[in-house]
Design goal:
The chain is 37% helix and 24% strand. By secondary structure, it is α/β, with parallel strands linked by helices. Strand 15 and strand 16 form a beta hairpin. It is elongated and about 105 Å long. It comes from Calothrix parasitica NIES-267. GO terms for molecular function: acyltransferase activity, transferring groups other than amino-acyl groups.
């Protein structure tokens, strides 16, 4: 007997002149008892219409066939038969996959009738088919037939109705056990599931099923029970979500592998229902199954499906609607505010932020947002609004993992500030993540706008599969310590952090700490990490409060917001420029760190202190008017402001372009004097500090 490899098989259609037509008829004859009567002339008719697919191996040996017919916009499988010597080699799937490929763009789906006693349920369901109904066969024995259906998911009247529900309510998929609990009479065993039927939820919550539930119903032995459960599932009480066949096979394979790693068998859960929930437009799976609830965080991380108990869903729903929680936050001293989004605002902001140009529907966007709004323990949804309360940006923080800040949605509305605002939100997210001692920020919005993509690249996120990841390590360490930390992160993570292994090796090299430019590049890449033995110079630079508030210090800017609101396009810049005299600092060379000492000013509080840390990217010495032309887009200075700075004998001043500014807890002058052991020092000009002093000052500011 020949050993046949699956990859050597070829699937092709035949016509009525094909030499394989007789092989088809002969194989049917050998299996007539199972396949049923079929006139030989009908084979020729199907072949003429090219409605017979065959499988042949590399030596052109016939291995099996699939015969189908078309009726309006549906395909019906009439025969599917594999030659005995070729069974168990995946030929059935290849034939079905070929049929799907050649008919998916022109038809609604594929149907077939199959006798229940043939025991082929797993084969059909494994290929994505759903049992829709049962009927008695025409033979004198009247054997029960099940009609199986594979839907291509094209829009139709039903999907339009479902879409309308998705736009107006939070749609959650309930698992099979919750479904059976809702059908049963009330008892202590199903009390939790019955909470989903509370009257006040009727206008807030849509209980959804996937057609995968019908596979489990079909496995119930009692025919009358199967009928009753189907009727209940198809009642007005539930919405059956449209099938999504794209990538279903890939998700089935990935989910099966994931579950096996968790020692959960497919047979122990409703696998087909779960995988269809993953690919559906609902992102919440309500279950009482402890096996799934125990790995809920991992399911979300791998499949972006929130798994939750019925009672927890209800609690989060009610708590969120009562929570008066959060006050708006002014952004960088501008008139813009960052506001927590409340449940019920989804429809009002949809038109600003959904992405129809990327084929995202309103329903898809609203379901994602509702999923996050109803889980405030793990997600916080913000919008940025202008003075007229018009939405300008949207960002969602996910905090289900202690080590990572997730951003599942980040959008900007179409306005002149969109690109700058995208950069600002991402930078603030990095700082927020680091401030909570999370080691990374991950952006996994599937519909990234061009402005957001540019901001992601600007802040040097690394693409890993469909995610963008950035480390943001809040550490002050030597290069050796940082190298070990990166190796540990790479080895402990399930994500593809190979790049960080390479980075660890480069930092470990002896020459690294002596290369100032490369060290500064790594500090930017791992911001806010500081490499304490790198030879990056650090200077304390004094700055007047009025300039600090406009260049980087939103705390100071907010103190004077009633008098002056900063121009948003300047306040949100990731970089800025500071001008000073070049007389005594002509040899200053970038890159270097800056500790900003904000001078005492009676108009402000919490000054006379170090308030921020930045990286200097460039130092230019030139005439005031030339520098003004170069950096006008970055500055809040007028030409008259910089022309008044003390000039050297050539009439030049200094411009310092800086970025990656991190606001610190203020370090008062007396604390600085104590660390420097200089009780009378004040800061009138640049003051260089060594790495040990920098470490003490920085650590003091981040306590």
């Amino acid at each position: 007997m020949k050993i046949q490899r699956e990859e050597s098989l070829k699937i092709q259609s035949i016509d009525n002149k094909s030499r394989y037509l007789q092989d088809v008829i002969q194989l049917w004859g050998q299996n007539r008892k199972t396949l049923g009567l079929f006139p030989k002339d009908a084979f020729k008719e199907r072949a003429t219409k090219q409605e017979i697919l065959i499988a042949v191996d590399s030596e052109a040996e016939f291995a099996g066939y699939l015969l189908f017919r078309t009726s309006f916009n549906r395909i019906t499988i009439v025969h599917l038969c594999i030659a005995p010597l070729h069974r168990g080699k995946g030929i059935t799937k290849k034939l079905i996959d070929k049929l799907k490929k050649i008919t998916k763009d022109t038809h609604e789906g594929i149907g077939l009738s199959c006798r229940n006693d043939y025991g082929l349920d797993n084969m059909w369901s494994g290929n994505g088919f759903i049992p829709k109904w049962e009927k008695s066969g025409r033979g004198k024995n009247g054997k029960t037939l099940t009609y199986w259906w594979f839907d291509y998911g094209h829009p139709n009247l039903l999907s339009i109705v479902v879409n309308q529900k998705l736009e107006s309510k939070l749609c959650v998929v309930i698992d099979s056990q919750v479904f059976f609990d809702l059908y049963a009479d009330e008892s202590l065993d199903n009390e939790e599931s019955k909470l989903l039927l509370l009257d006040w939820l009727e206008y807030e919550l849509e209980l959804c099923l996937t057609d995968g539930l019908f596979i489990q119903i079909n496995s119930i032995e009692n025919k009358e029970k199967r009928k009753l459960y189907r009727q209940f599932a198809e009642s007005q009480q539930f919405t059956v979500l449209p099938s999504k066949s794209d990538n279903l096979d890939d998700y089935q394979e990935t989910l099966q592998k994931f579950l096996s790693q968790k020692n959960i068998l497919k047979s122990e859960i409703n696998f087909h229902h779960l995988v269809r929930a993953i690919v559906s437009d609902s992102h919440i799976f309500v279950t009482t199954d402890s096996r799934l609830l125990n790995i809920a965080n991992e399911i979300y991380e791998n499949f972006k499906l929130s798994v939750i108990r019925p009672k927890n869903l209800i609690v989060q729903f009610s708590e969120f609607t009562r929570n008066p929680e959060y006050q708006p936050t002014r952004l960088s001293g501008t008139s813009l505010e960052q506001v927590i989004i409340k449940k019920g605002e989804e429809e009002a902001i949809t038109n600003y932020f959904y992405c129809p140009d990327q084929n995202e529907t309103k329903a898809q966007f609203q379901q994602k947002l509702r999923r996050f709004l109803t889980n405030p323990e793990n997600f916080t949804c913000f919008k940025v609004v202008d003075a007229e309360n018009k939405p300008l940006a949207l960002i969602v923080y996910g905090k289900h993992n202690d080590y990572e800040l997730e951003i599942p949605i980040i959008r900007v509305a179409d306005n002149p500030l969109s690109a700058t605002l995208a950069q600002h939100l991402i930078f603030k997210s990095i700082l927020h993540s680091a401030g909570e001692n999370r080691q990374s920020t991950i952006i996994n919005d599937c519909f990234l706008q061009e402005q957001v993509n540019q901001a992601i690249q600007e802040y040097q996120f690394i693409q890993v599969n469909d995610n963008f990841i950035r480390l943001n390590l809040a550490v002050v360490e030597t290069a050796d310590q940082l190298s070990k930390r990166l190796k540990k992160i790479a080895s402990n993570s399930e994500k593809q952090y190979n790049f960080f292994n390479k980075l660890a090796k480069s930092i470990k090299q002896e020459s690294f700490i002596h290369n100032v430019q490369e060290s500064a590049n790594i500090e930017r890449f791992l911001f806010p990490a500081k490499i304490i033995d790198a030879e990056i110079p650090t200077y304390i630079i004094p700055i007047q409060a009025k300039w600090a508030k406009d260049l980087f210090d939103e705390g100071l800017a907010n103190q004077h917001l009633s008098l002056f609101a900063a121009k948003s396009e300047l306040a949100f810049n990731k970089e800025a420029v500071y001008y000073r005299s070049a007389k005594t600092n002509g040899k200053l060379k970038a890159p270097f760190r800056i500790l900003w000492y904000v001078s005492i000013d009676p108009s402000y509080v919490y000054v006379g202190a170090i308030r921020a840390c930045s990286l200097a990217d460039e130092v230019i010495i030139d005439k005031p008017e030339n520098l003004f032309q170069i950096f006008q887009r970055l500055g809040v200075y007028k030409l008259s402001d910089i022309s008044s700075i003390n000039q050297d004998k050539e009439g030049n001043i200094m411009a310092i372009r800086f970025s990656y500014t991190e606001l610190l807890n203020e370090i008062e002058l007396r604390t600085i004097q104590k660390i420097l052991n200089k009780p009378k020092i004040t800061f009138q000009s640049l003051y260089r500090v060594d790495n040990n002093v920098f470490k003490q000052l920085y650590n003091n500011s981040t306590k």
